[in-house]
Design a protein that fits this description.
Layout: H1 21-29, H2 43-50, H3 58-65, H4 69-80, H5 86-93, H6 98-104, H7 109-135, E1 141-142, H8 143-149, H9 153-165, E2 170-173, E3 178-181
Antiparallel strand pairs: 1-3, 2-3
């Protein structure tokens, strides 16, 4: 059973759990666009699809998908540390320029920018769901609210940057250090 809080998340978020892109592509062919769409796929089909993934089985996936949004977010962020783009994002967060990162990783500046963009693009549906949950009746998200979700400082910085770069829906106020909704996209 997929938790209602995460059923509308884009299926591509599964790549952050270490699920192979080829498996995600097969799910797309089965018309699965959101996590909730997985419940319409037969168990045997899911087990066959996830048999090719060393990192996660269909049974593990069911357990992860039954978690609430906060726990799901924690699982995603725990898995991010093995994402190849995580190192690039951490260097970016530590004020290295795209040029410096490219030189360090023997890559191009454009490829570094593209990797950072793709890394966050997949997280935006999670950020939206999390933001909607945390904002509640108070109309803002404090840094304490975000720290309550993720206690590791590096993960906190990545989550905060995801909110900051997703400027079409979220606005970070430097003065109050709070995040508010822009009202767009809701």
């Amino acid at each position: 059973v997929i938790n209602k809080e995460i059923e509308n998340l884009n299926i591509d978020i599964l790549v952050k759990l270490g699920i192979k892109k080829s498996t995600i592509n097969k799910l797309h062919k089965l018309k699965a666009k959101k996590l909730g769409d997985l419940s319409a796929i037969e168990t045997a089909t899911l087990e066959e699809l996830f048999a090719e993934n060393e990192n996660i089985s269909a049974e593990n996936l069911r357990e992860i998908l039954s978690a609430d949004l906060i726990e799901f977010t924690r699982k995603i962020f725990a898995a991010l540390h093995v994402d190849p783009s995580y190192e690039i994002v951490m260097l970016h967060l530590n004020n290295h320029t795209h040029h410096e990162i490219a030189k360090r990783l023997d890559s191009s500046k454009d490829k570094v920018k593209q990797d950072i963009s793709k890394f966050f693009q997949v997280l935006y549906t999670l950020v939206d769901a999390l933001g909607n949950k945390l904002i509640g009746d108070k109309n803002y998200i404090s840094m304490e609210d975000l720290h309550a979700v993720l206690d590791g400082e590096e993960d906190f910085k990545v989550l905060l940057l995801a909110f900051k770069t997703h400027d079409t829906k979220w606005i970070f106020n430097n003065k109050t250090e709070c995040i508010t909704s822009s009202g767009k996209g809701f």
